[in-house]
Write a structure and sequence with these properties.
By secondary structure, the chain is an alpha+beta fold. The protein contains two helices and eight strands. 20% of the residues are buried.
């Protein structure tokens, strides 16, 4: 699920402020602490090799975020692809891979426990 900034409903607009809100943008039920993450990714980065060894070779953490610049395509466990671009809000449910189509910077919020497990796995893959 993703949505461009201009497609998010304006709830309030006054001189000097615009408030946009997208309701029902993912579900964090059952997750504990959340981590805030800033990723800088180069074109061509593909997480599939980094996720080898994880069940289904996918990330098992959901993410909510915003694309500052670039273009990223996710592929879910069923093979469904979705591309996010600069100024898109996104929600990536568990069970995805990422391919960077153009140099990108993103801000994400993820369940700390689940995503730390995936990040630690990637660190070990790079060390091997």
């Amino acid at each position: 699920m993703h949505i461009h900034k201009d497609a998010v409903d304006v709830k309030m607009e006054i001189p000097g402020a615009v408030i946009r809100q997208q309701l029902d943008f993912g579900d964090a039920t059952g997750y504990g602490k959340i981590s805030g993450e800033y990723f800088t990714l180069s074109e061509g980065v593909d997480t599939r090799p980094l996720f080898e060894g994880l069940a289904g070779t996918v990330c098992h953490s959901p993410h909510w975020g915003y694309v500052l610049r670039g273009r990223i395509t996710t592929t879910d466990s069923n093979g469904v692809q979705e591309t996010v671009n600069a100024n898109d809000l996104f929600y990536w449910p568990p069970g995805h891979n990422v391919k960077v189509e153009a140099d990108a910077e993103i801000i994400m919020f993820s369940p700390q426990h689940e995503h730390s497990h995936v990040i630690n796995h990637m660190i070990e893959k790079v060390r091997s």
